[in-house]
Amino acid sequence: RSPAVLSSLIEADLRRNSASAATQKLIAELQRLDPSNGLADCYAVALYFGMGDTEGALEALAEAGRKSRLVDHSIDLVLTRKIFLLNEGCTDAVALGLSAFTVPLPHLALLRQAAGKALAQSQEMASDGNMHGALAVAEDVVRIARNLSTAGRSLVHDLVGIRIQTDALEQLKQLQENHGNSIGAERTGAGLEATEKRAREISIMTAAVPKALHCMTEADLAAYLDDLIVNGEFSALRRLPAVAEALDNSLDHTKP
Residues 199-225: pLDDT tens digits? Predict the structure, then answer.
């Protein structure tokens, strides 16, 4: 079975709260097929938290934090849907547009919930005097969220990653301050500022999208969606003239 099929089966089990030993086997198979991707480990985090196995969940979290990527298989679904719609008689632009804008992303909610439970465990560890463990868990969540945000797939991925990252960075900064690590807290504060800046940039880009789409021909839309699939939505949007203009105007307004 392909990674996309395995992900769909795992997500269905987790959403129905029917995860079992069979789900664990599916996660292990996904880990084998894509060993540098932290997605399967994040599924394991959600699975173990759901089973009440906090230790297993935090071990899976640490493993996900060690991975260099956190990438889902939504692009595979987009391309599969595009082929189906082309065979049904849609034009290339319409097939690609319908495919790109209707892909479900249920794993993002699972990631958000798992990250929230992990941060709650971090707080509990700090209260129990286990500052090393508390810091490690918060740092793992930061790394996972950063990988999600920079995966480049869509603004939805980016925004969910930013939200998780912000929560984790705020908690990490507080823990560092409580632990007397002023240098670490300052570095974490700089990370928070960078995350907030990216969130503001995405907000500006999103507001400019209607104008950008209004000016597009069907060929322009097809080219944009191709760019989105190859390079991700954040990069593709920045290359649209209306979006680039909005970002330039915002930059001008922030200059002293």
Answer: 999 899 888 888 887 888 878 877 887
Closest Cα to residue 22, out of 9, 32, 38, 34? Answer: 9
Q: What are phi and psi of 69, to 5 degrees?
A: -140, 155
Q: What is the pTM of this model?
A: 0.84
Residue 75 and residue 200 in contact, taking contact as beta carbons nearer than 8 Å: no
3-state secondary structure of 37: strand
Q: Of 178, 48, 177, 170, nearest to 113 (Cα)?
A: 48
H helix count then E strand count, the chain: 13, 0
- Residue 18 phi, psi (nearest 5): -115, 25
Q: What angle do CA 30, 101, 94 make, to 5 degrees?
A: 120
DSSP 73: S
DSSP for 25-68, please give it.
HHHHHHHHHSTTBSHHHHHHHHHHHHHT-HHHHHHHHHHHHH-S
Q: Mapping DSSP to helix (H, G, I), strand (E, B) and coil, where does residue 157 land?
A: helix
Of 138, 165, 137, the residue nearest 151 (C-alpha): 165
Give the tokens for residue 27. 């996660």
Contact at 8 Å (CB) between 140 and 118?
yes
Nearest Cα neighbor of 111 from 40, 35, 188, 203 is 40
The answer to whether residues 97 and 86 touch, using CB atoms and an 8 Å cutoff, is: no
Of the candidates 125, 239, 228, the residue with the CA atom closest to the CA atom of residue 178: 125
Tens of pLDDT, residues 3-50: 888 998 999 999 888 878 899 999 999 999 999 999 999 999 999 999
Token duo for residue 114: 């798992």
